[in-house]
Write a structure and sequence with these properties.
The chain has 714 residues and is an alpha/beta fold. The protein contains 23 helices and 12 strands. It is 63% helix and 10% strand. The relative contact order is 0.09.
């Protein structure tokens, strides 16, 4: 439904949809017919970014994102004003010095006298050589910049006709330029490529040299730091008398372990010898033990000197880390002591108690060994304590040395990494630039004319624009165009609709005449349908009030038409013109009886209501309401009398803009219908009227949708 409405809207404005695009097509044709031909030159640059043949053997392969960034940077740099300014200088210098300029001289260009031309050539050449820019604050250079712009040689004009893009996933960047001169197009493309490669190569070379110098300075600083740390480590070892702290610590650990083992052996000897001595003592009674002690004292007196000497040799032997020299001394003095003991035993061998004497001699030998082991333990403890104190001194020194060596090792690794980077940077700096122009751009032929395409496109665009404007207006239009929409928005039923009757004026007296029968056929068919629906709503009641939401909605035509429609089915009809503000029925029919006379309770008034097929009760059109004519009781009596005389009473009341006047008539109506004109919207006042109709309940029969287009339900 909405689509058909929109199509109807387009049909209504079809002249606009035809005229405006036609005007656009004609205007575009006259505008484009003098446009010059377009010549495009193009070239390509090989970047070497993805070309493996142009990479160094150990150069890493870049990722896709990095490759994309590199290509984007190159294409962006190619459009920089720094590059395009160089092209602008060469273009203007060419036209200033050549007899065949690329473009027709502009007014500013022509105004240059010989001296100004020479000055311009001098300034442009100087700026080109130093890659300078024209300064806008300088009046002279501002004028020279205007000359370039007037010839459309400025960077903005060049960039607007230049296209730069990467050829899919290849290593090539495509550059093209379009102008009205084939020589100009080729010159611009080749100059852009030349200037860009020069700038990019010098810039890349400068950056590489900066990187090399920076890495060299870092290497020198790192080497100096390593030398300082190496000297600090050397001085620290000398000051602390350290040759090889790892071996020294290992030697101390080994000595302590050896001494600890020997100490454990000595402890074992002390325990075993002490036990053997106790076993021997248990074999003597107290008297014999006393004699043995006396004998032992005599023997001890002989060997005391040798035992003291033996103790001295044992201490020296342990402190010397078991020097064989002192080992021989200990063994020698032990043999002397053993000989003295053996000699003592021999002297007592003739004694009857020789067996006991042998035990006594064994005890003496065990005591000597016990004492020797005890001497050793004491010496071992002293040496172990001394060695551990030396080891304790080495531990912090070793930690400090390890820290210094680790720092020196880290610096060495960093130095090697920097050295590798420096070597790579040096090789890259000496490697020639990868950018190169694959082939020179040459003047090409004229491109296919786009004049016809532009002309057609102009018409299509204007047509689309017009349709879009109409669509927006249609979308924003909240008017009601269909009976179904009216029922949905108001929540009240629609009894039927009437089509719009074409014509500048409508003569109600002639509308049902024979010559209008063809034009009114659809209207009469729709009216019959409405009449049937009204009969169903009346259910034997007779008073029908017809109102509308606003003036001019068509309630007068509906009231007259209904009256005529009822009359042709042999109904006695009374048509009452209750519209005091606009009594159209009264003016058209010119009735003989008026409301102001009939409803007044005047005993002198004679009832002249005619019981004919159609009777009309008009009004004088004064500023009055129904209840101002007479009270409600009298009016009700009058209506009761009318109902006995007529089959149906049709009252046209005022529209709901004058709700107070309309409500008085609706008090006496059995049913009320309201006329709604198509393509009207519901504002706040109309919504209030709709709310009032809803409050009537069953007394409100429904809407009559008037001035509808064809097939409004489809």
């Amino acid at each position: 439904m909405e689509l058909k409405d929109f199509v109807s809207l387009l049909k209504r404005y079809k002249l606009i949809l035809i005229i405006l695009p036609s005007v656009a097509i004609v205007a575009t044709y006259f505008y484009t017919r003098k446009l010059p031909d377009v010549y495009t030159s193009q070239t390509q640059i090989s970047t070497g970014i993805v070309d493996q043949s142009q990479k160094l053997p150990d150069e890493a392969v870049a990722g896709e994102s990095q490759i994309f960034i590199q290509f984007s940077n190159i294409m962006t740099m190619m459009k920089m004003n720094r590059i395009l300014n160089q092209v602008s200088y060469q273009l203007i210098l060419h036209d200033l010095t050549s007899r065949e300029p690329f473009r027709k001289p502009s007014k500013l260009f022509k105004d240059l006298n010989p001296s100004a031309r020479a000055h311009a050539i001098e300034v442009y050449t100087k700026l080109y050589n130093v890659h300078g820019l024209l300064q806008s604050w300088d009046e002279d250079q501002r004028g020279l910049s205007s000359v370039i712009s007037s010839m459309q040689y400025d960077p903005g004009s060049i960039q607007s006709k230049m296209t730069v893009y990467r050829n899919e996933a290849s290593d090539y960047i495509h550059i093209d330029y379009s102008s009205d001169n084939p020589q100009l197009s080729a010159f611009v493309v080749n100059t852009i490529v030349k200037e860009f490669i020069t700038y990019y190569t010098s810039s890349e070379r400068e950056n590489q040299l900066k990187a090399v110098r920076f890495l060299d300075s870092l290497l020198a600083a790192k080497k100096y730091l390593m030398d300082v740390k190496r000297d600090s480590l050397k001085r620290f070892k000398i000051d602390n008398h350290i040759l090889d702290i790892t071996n020294q610590a290992a030697s101390l650990y080994n000595q302590i372990a050896d001494l600890d083992n020997r100490k454990q052996q000595a402890d074992a000897e002390v325990a075993s010898n002490s036990g053997a001595i106790r076993e021997i003592d248990n074999k003597f009674n107290p008297h014999e033990r006393k004699n043995f002690e006396n004998f032992r004292n005599q023997v001890n007196a002989k060997i005391t000197r040798n035992k003291d000497l033996q103790k001295t040799f044992v201490n020296s032997w342990v402190k010397s880390s078991y020097n064989p020299y002192y080992q021989a001394k200990v063994d020698s003095i032990q043999r002397v002591i053993d000989d003295q003991i053996s000699q003592t035993i021999d002297e007592t061998s003739d004694n009857p108690a020789s067996a006991k004497a042998s035990l006594q001699a064994q005890k003496m030998d065990l005591e000597i060994k016990l004492n020797l082991a005890r001497y050793s333990i004491s010496t071992f403890n002293g040496e172990i304590t001394k060695l551990r104190s030396q080891l304790d001194l080495l531990v912090p020194l070793q930690a400090k040395i390890q820290e210094m060596e680790k720092s020196l090792d880290d610096d060495s690794k960093e130095y090697l990494e920097l050295l590798a980077k420096d070597n790579q940077a040096s090789v890259t700096a000496n490697f020639s630039s990868k950018l190169r122009q694959v082939e020179l751009a040459t003047p090409g032929g004229a491109e296919a004319s786009k004049k016809m395409l532009l002309t057609i496109a102009a018409g299509i665009i204007v047509e689309i624009f017009c349709i879009l404007i109409l669509f927006i207006l249609f979308y924003l239009d909240d008017s009601i165009r269909h009976p179904k929409t009216l029922a949905n928005k108001t929540g009240l039923p629609v009894l039927g609709y009437l089509n719009v009757i074409k014509g500048s004026t409508l003569d109600l007296k002639k509308i049902w005449e024979i010559e209008n029968r063809g034009k009114m056929q659809q209207f009469k068919d729709l009216l019959r349908s409405i009449r049937f629906e009204i009969d169903q709503e009346l259910h034997g009641n007779k008073i029908l009030a017809i109102t509308s939401l606003g003036d001019g909605d068509g309630k007068t035509l509906l009231a007259i038409s209904l009256a005529y429609s009822y009359s042709i089915i042999n109904k006695r009809v009374l048509l009452i013109d209750g519209n005091f503000s606009n009594p159209t029925i009264s003016k058209t029919v010119q009735p003989k009886l008026f409301i102001e006379d009939y409803f007044r309770d005047d005993p002198d008034y004679k009832d002249v209501i005619l019981n004919t097929s159609i009777s009309v009760l008009g009004n004088h059109g004064s500023d009055i309401t129904l209840l101002e004519i007479e009270n409600e009781r009298i009016i009700q009596q009058k209506f009761s009398k009318l109902k006995s005389m007529y089959d149906i009473i049709i009252i046209e009341v005022q529209d709901m803009d004058k709700m107070n006047k309309a409500k008085e008539w609706l008090l006496f109506a059995d049913k009320t219908i309201a006329v709604f004109e198509a393509r009207q919207s519901l504002d706040e006042n109309r919504k209030a009227s709709v709310k009032y109709f809803a409050s009537l309940g069953s007394k409100f029969a429904g809407w009559i949708f008037n001035k509808a287009t064809a097939e409004p339900y489809s």
